[in-house]
Amino acid sequence: MKFLSLTVLAILIGIGVFSLFNQSSNNVEEITTTELKEQMKTDQTAVYIDVREVDEFEDGHVEGMKNMPLSSFTETYSELPKDKEIVVMCRSGNRSMQAAEYLVQQGYKDVINVSGGMLAWDGPVK
């Protein structure tokens, strides 16, 4: 009986820890690249950032995106205004989600991740 109680307790703790670490993405809204394209036509107040590395960005990026590589993001994120919407993009949506979650942890309220990233982008690149 004691073994069963410890097993149940361990499972509950594991679920709690998993939930704690899995929570942050719930605070980040996601949009598609189609929605991004439409938003960039009408919303000039949002800040659009691409967190790919410099060489990736230079190979082709969405016009209007500012390059802030994820590798140095913890040193540069404070340049971003907390009172504006921040839209984050990368190659596939994974690195941008990491950056978006980091921004939320730092107190940014209006952060959006572009799901699919450049792999899903079908618009022009600069």
Tell me what you see in this structure:
The protein is α/β, with parallel strands linked by helices and 126 residues long. 45% of the residues lie in helices and 13% in strands. It is built from six helices and five strands; from the N terminus they run H-E-H-E-H-E-H-E-H-E-H. The protein has helices at residues 2-22, 33-42, 54-59, 73-76, 94-105, 117-120, and strands spanning 29-31, 47-50, 66-67, 86-89, 111-114. It has a five-stranded parallel sheet. Helix 5 links the parallel strand 4 (86-89) and strand 5. Pfam families: Rhodanese (PF00581). Residues 42-126 form the Rhodanese domain. InterPro entries: GlpE_sulfurtransferase, Rhodanese-like_dom, Rhodanese-like_dom_sf.
Topology, element by element:
Blueprint: H1 2-22, E1 29-31, H2 33-42, E2 47-50, H3 54-59, E3 66-67, H4 73-76, E4 86-89, H5 94-105, E5 111-114, H6 117-120
Parallel strand pairs: 1-5, 2-3, 2-4, 4-5
Major sheet size, sense and barrel closure: 5 strands, parallel
Detail the poorly predicted runs: 16-24
Taking the alpha carbons of the first and last residues, their distance comes to 66 Å
Q: So what's the overall shape?
A: globular
**Order of helices and strands, N to C?**
HEHEHEHEHEH
> What's the average pLDDT?
87
Residues in helix, % = 40-55%
Number of strands: 5
Helices and strands: which structural class? alpha/beta
Q: Describe the strand arrangement of the main beta sheet, using strand numbers.
A: 1-5-4-2-3
Measured on Cα atoms, how large is the radius of gyration?
18 Å
Strand content: 5-15%
- Helices, by number, come to 6
